[in-house]
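Whiteboard transcription, Tuesday session. T.W. wrote the C-alpha cells on the left side:
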C-alpha cells in the first residue's frame, strides 16, 4: 500500500510543477490542497489518512492538539529550516519527523524594496489612476537619496536591504539587541545605540528580526510615537514584531505616514480587516518568499526529504 501525502496551502497551484515528483510515484500518493482550511475539523478530515504532510512556512500551524488528531502522520516537511508554527516537541513525542528545506534570503529583501518604493512614489494610487482614467499626477513622491533608512535587524535579509539602500544614496542605520559596531561597519552602515534613536532619525524603518518572546511587540505604541509623522514602517518579517492595535491607531491618527506590510497576525487577512482599506497602507499577501526560485527549491527538496525518510535516513531534520 502506498503512503499518502498531502501538500497544504498550494495557493498558486504550482507545487507539482515546481519539482519532479516521479521518484515517489510508486511509493507515495500525493494530493494537493489549494485552499487554506481554517476550520480545524475540516483540516483533520482532509488529511487524517496521511502519513506525510508538506507545508509552506506558517500558513497552517501544526500545534500539539492538531498533531494528536493525526495518528497516522509520520513526516512533516516544511519550507525553510525554521517554522515557528510547528510544535517540534509535540511532534517528537508523537514520533513525527520534521524536515525542512533550503530557503533564499534574496526574495524577501527584494520585496522589502518593492514596498519601500511603492510607498515612497505612491505607486498603487498612481497606477490605479492611469488604469481607471483618473487624475494625471496626483501625488508628490518622497526622495530616497539623502534620506535615512533604519533597519531593525542586520542579518542576511537586513544586510541585503542595507546594500540597496546605500546604492540609492541613503544613510543607513541599524539596531538590534546584539548588534556591534564591527558588524554594522562590515555592512557599511552606522549602529544606533538605542532602538529609540533609530526610530527618531529614520525616514523608513524596516523590520528584519526573528520572532520570539523577546521580540514580540518589539514595535508598540511607544516606538510608533518615537517615529516621525513623515516616516514609514515596513514589515516583511513577522507580524508579531508589531503591536497591531497600536499600529492601527498610529496609521489612523496620521502619527506615521504609512506602512508597507507583507505579514499579518491572521493569514489570509480577513475580508473586513481595516488594514485592507486604510489609504496609507500598502499591503501584500505574504509574498516575501514567493518566487519561482524559492518554490523550485522548496518542493524539489521536499521530494528529497520524503525519499530520504522512506529510506530510513531523514535529512535536514528540525530540532
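and on the right, the sequence the group agreed on:
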Amino acid at each position: 500500500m502506498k503512503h499518502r501525502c498531502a501538500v497544504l496551502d498550494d495557493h498558486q497551484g504550482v507545487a507539482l510543477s515546481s519539482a519532479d515528483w516521479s521518484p515517489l510515484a510508486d511509493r507515495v500518493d500525493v494530493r494537493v490542497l489549494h485552499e487554506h482550511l481554517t476550520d480545524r475539523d475540516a483540516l483533520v478530515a482532509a488529511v487524517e489518512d496521511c502519513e506525510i504532510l508538506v507545508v509552506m512556512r506558517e500558513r497552517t500551524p501544526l500545534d500539539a492538539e492538531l498533531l494528536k488528531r493525526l495518528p497516522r502522520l509520520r513526516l512533516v516537511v516544511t519550507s525553510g529550516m525554521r517554522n515557528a508554527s510547528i510544535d517540534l516537541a509535540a511532534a517528537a513525542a508523537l514520533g513525527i519527523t520534521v524536515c525542512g528545506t533550503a530557503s533564499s534570503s534574496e526574495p524577501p529583501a527584494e520585496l522589502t524594496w518593492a514596498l519601500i518604493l511603492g510607498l515612497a512614489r505612491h505607486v498603487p494610487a498612481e497606477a490605479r489612476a492611469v488604469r481607471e482614467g483618473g487624475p494625471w499626477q496626483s501625488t508628490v513622491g518622497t526622495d530616497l537619496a539623502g534620506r535615512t533608512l533604519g533597519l531593525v535587524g542586520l542579518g542576511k535579509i537586513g544586510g541585503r536591504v542595507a546594500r540597496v539602500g546605500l546604492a540609492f544614496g541613503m544613510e543607513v542605520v541599524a539596531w538590534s539587541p546584539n548588534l556591534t559596531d564591527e558588524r554594522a561597519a562590515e555592512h557599511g552602515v552606522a549602529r544606533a545605540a538605542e532602538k529609540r534613536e533609530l526610530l527618531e532619525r529614520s525616514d523608513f524603518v524596516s523590520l528584519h528580526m526573528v520572532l520570539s518572546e523577546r521580540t514580540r511587540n518589539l514595535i508598540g505604541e511607544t516606538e510608533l510615537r518615537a517615529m516621525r509623522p513623515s516616516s514609514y514602517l515596513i514589515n516583511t518579517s513577522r507580524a508579531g514584531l508589531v503591536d497591531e492595535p497600536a499600529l492601527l491607531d498610529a496609521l489612523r491618527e496620521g502619527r506615521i505616514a504609512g506602512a508597507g506590510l507583507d505579514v499579518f497576525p491572521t493569514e489570509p487577512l480577513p475580508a473586513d480587516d481595516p488594514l485592507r482599506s486604510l489609504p496609507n497602507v500598502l499591503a501584500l499577501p505574504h509574498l516575501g518568499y514567493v518566487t519561482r526560485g524559492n518554490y523550485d527549491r522548496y518542493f524539489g527538496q521536499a521530494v528529497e526529504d520524503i525519499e530520504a525518510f522512506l529510506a530510513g535516513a531523514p535529512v535536514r531534520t528540525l530540532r
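Someone added at the bottom: The chain has a mean pLDDT of 97.
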